[in-house]
Amino acid sequence: MTSQLNNVTVVMNFVCTEEKRLNFVLKNIVDWASVLEDCHFNINFNDSINLAPIQNIFEKNIPKLNFSNMQEKDFALTTYNISTDIKTPYVLFLCEDCIFNMTKDDLSNILQEVADKDVDFVNLTKLEKYNRSNYRKQGKYVEGKYGHFYKGRNSPSSRLSIQAMFKTELWLNYFKNFLENRDRPWPHSLKFKYTNLPNCIEGYYDFSLGPQKNPLFTELNCYIPKKIIFDHWDETKQKYTYIKNEI
């Protein structure tokens, strides 16, 4: 039942400098272990503050762990670098504040359905919204037992979110294309323009470069789970830790 979890590498690249957030993250990683212990983990902690407790909690609870401490504040480049040696067919990107709402068996069922249908991209954001009937109609969803299937060109969202599961080749291309083009003129305006932050990657793939129009994504086999997989604990946001003298 858990074999498909072995085919997933969890990727994380984060900072955690606030004490309140640290206390939450340490507990959360322990909670993850019961669901994700069969997955591989490629983790980069992007700071020196709280490095020891973060590294210790991962090493104690995650058996298949590659842990690094690259501290350059360039989210896209660092995340790409820790992903190039991934051997599993799928990558699951997680934020450290994701709280799982499902069991290992629940996740295994979803992963089996994804593997059986050769899915390229699993949307994991705003699941309640995109499971509504109007979005199911817009996306021309085909119902599965545990989720819905759709083509990238019919995506109900113009954004290819980073909070998702990707085929590994697609994940690497997602970052490589961004890194090769982020210093060139952009085809649309961005609300959040700091190119070293994950928000900027998602913004880059909006609208004219979103899944509905970009030839990289229009033919993707996409999937959205029926069940909300996780919630976010977001009392203390830390994205500005990545910004170097820009604000």
Task: Name its key features.
247 residues, alpha/beta, Spore Coat Polysaccharide Biosynthesis Protein SpsA, Chain A, two-stranded antiparallel ribbon, 11 strands, globular, disordered C terminus
Characterise the protein shown here.
The protein is α/β, with parallel strands linked by helices. It has a single domain, classed as Spore Coat Polysaccharide Biosynthesis Protein SpsA, Chain A (Alpha-Beta Complex), CATH 3.90.550. The chain is built from eight helices and eleven strands. The chain is globular and about 50 Å long. The N and C termini lie far apart (49 Å).
Task: Describe the secondary-structure layout.
Layout: E1 8-14, H1 19-36, E2 40-45, H2 51-61, E3 65-68, H3 75-81, E4 90-93, E5 98-100, H4 104-116, E6 121-123, H5 127-130, H6 133-138, E7 142-143, E8 147-151, E9 164-167, H7 168-181, H8 198-204, E10 221-225, E11 230-232
Parallel strand pairs: 1-2, 1-4, 2-3, 6-10
Antiparallel strand pairs: 4-9, 5-11, 6-9, 7-8, 8-10
Gyration radius, in Å:
17 Å
Mean pLDDT: 87
Major sheet, described briefly? 9 strands, mixed
Instruction: Output the helix-strand order.
Output: EHEHEHEEHEHHEEEHHEE
Short description:
The protein is α/β, with parallel strands linked by helices. It has helices at 19-36, 51-61, 75-81, 104-116, 127-130, 133-138, 168-181, 198-204; strands at 8-14, 40-45, 65-68, 90-93, 98-100, 121-123, 142-143, 147-151, 164-167, 221-225, 230-232.
